[in-house]
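Quality-control log, excerpt.
Job 1 of 2 completed; input and output follow.
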Amino acid sequence: MQNNFKNLSKRAKILKKLREFFWQQNFLEVETPNIVSLPGQEPYLSPVNFLINDEKGRQYSAYLHTSPEYTMKKMLASGFENIFSICKCFRDKESFGGIHNPEFTMLEWYRVNADFFEIMQDVENLFASVGDMKNKFQRIHMRDLWQKFAGVNLDDYLEKEKMFSLCLDKGFKPSEDESYEDLFYRIFLNMIEPQLNGYYIVHHYPAQMAALAKLSDDERYAERFEVYVNGIEIANAFSELTDAKEQKARLVEERKLREKLGASVYNIDEDFVDAVDILPKCAGIALGVDRLVQVLLGCQNIDNVLVLPASKIFK
């Protein structure tokens, strides 16, 4: 902890600047519960599960949220407009150190009557306000990124069978039961992400990887982007899906994938689906604060910007 004193002091100043950035734009800071009754359905995330008791001894299954997204969207559906949150999030089965910690700080914000291009501008302005990095970001379509670093036209590989063949051509050994996303990331994580030196906003992910984003005018791609700084993923953003029927269908598919992967399976949060049905046009983003501080300070390990990382708590 003593060795991290300078980094933790700088971290505190960065957090202050983050809040000032949003206050100056009249965003409302909101607090969401860390304890929830149902987690999200993301196939590759593992929520922390525990039992909680009320004063009469009645026991409930509970989870520490993996992000405040569901709650914040419920707030947007109830009439809140531009909002942000800086909160602790929790994920089980994460690495201890490197760029991961099971307890981490998330900055999440939403703009009403906006799309993901406006969130891109927010990202560039925010980095400029906290780290003097204005005009350093390169915005690039995922298709162009694959052409540049993998030498292929992604338009030709938007189906699972074709992506499977491409993985074989590139020397990987995928199994037949891998999802499109698994296959996509075999190439992306090994051939593309390590080459993302500098500041990148990578936008328009394949529709199969839309998550909670709406599809673009070219429905083969979703209005989703991620922020990379020197090969480290910092943030994930969407033009938010506002079609409850489509949202429910995606959650059902994610639940099936969790079951296929042998992960714990949870009920769908129907209150969230109902909220999506009345969600205004909006866009939002989740940004990892610890990773942001890490890259701003040039630290190789996330442990260097935390008071007591898991690697120290559980050593």
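Job 2 of 2 completed; input and output follow.
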Amino acid sequence: MNRPSPSSARPLLLTMGDACGIGPEIAVAAWARDRGTDLRLVGDVAVFRRALGIVGLDLPLAVLEHADDVAPPDCLPVWQPPGLPADLVGQPLGRVSAVAGGAAARCIVAAVHEQQAGRSRALVTAPIHKEALHAGGIDHPGHTELLQALCADAQGQLPPVRMMLANDELRVVLVTIHVALRQAVDQITTGRVLQTIRITDAALRRAGLDAPRIAVAGLNPHAGEGGLFGTEEIEHIAPAIAQARTLGIDAQGPFAPDTVFMRARHAPPRHVGEFDAVVAMTHDQGLIPVKYLGVEEGVNVTLGLPLVRTSPDHGTAFDIAGTGRADPSSMVAAIRMARAMSA
């Protein structure tokens, strides 16, 4: 393959995800829809060839020696990182596999290294399976935590990161992510809520919003009802909002969790959102409204990393892996968002 000239745009790298799930299928289908010359797939060549057959695409596959090689036109461009297991394509579809979990992590690590070396400009990740990841020897519960560890500084300090779920109607950023609900409540501190608000404000400003309007959800029913249903709003959430406002951030709340997402929803003419994003306290509190509005178009964005990372807002869908029924729309949206954020 031809090496890129210095003037060539650095590519977007799309990792295959768990080879036993729908990741490879939606990756090749999304590439076929997008056809961006800046998009490269990262993963096992044989797995991607199988995926082309599953989704019924008759496309030539170009095997790249380097992730930033220039690929021939109208060919699926695949870079296979060194060290992937030879029997990966032989793992049964729709089943948890330690081999697939380890391979998925290896692709993520390789893609991050390419971006850290300046050879790519953004990372798009297909879904991984947390149980397979653990079985494969990876001591991180998900993409977000693995990426955070890979982006630690020379002293081992992890960058503070947050998960944002977004679609055309709603953006939600989470204070807590992949922890048990009992632990999540303990993690809701003034410092953590304030940090989430600041990360959200900075990300929205980088995305082109001059004065982002940020709503902050409460934790308890009715946002605690003045302390009757819990005191986290009084002790931690409201003080964080007040501190954010002293920094010039337009943060408001805490609002009742059962109505704040409707107030932020932007779907004119019927819904004109009052806010540009909602800071939610827990994983399910924030993800349920975004996914209800359309999981097919949802995008997961990791905020706070020194790199751009997006992914589709769904999992490996083992139950339909290999059937060709997986919808690539969320992956297409993730590619387009990564491209816009790294332009």
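Post-run check on job 2. The chain has a mean pLDDT of 93.
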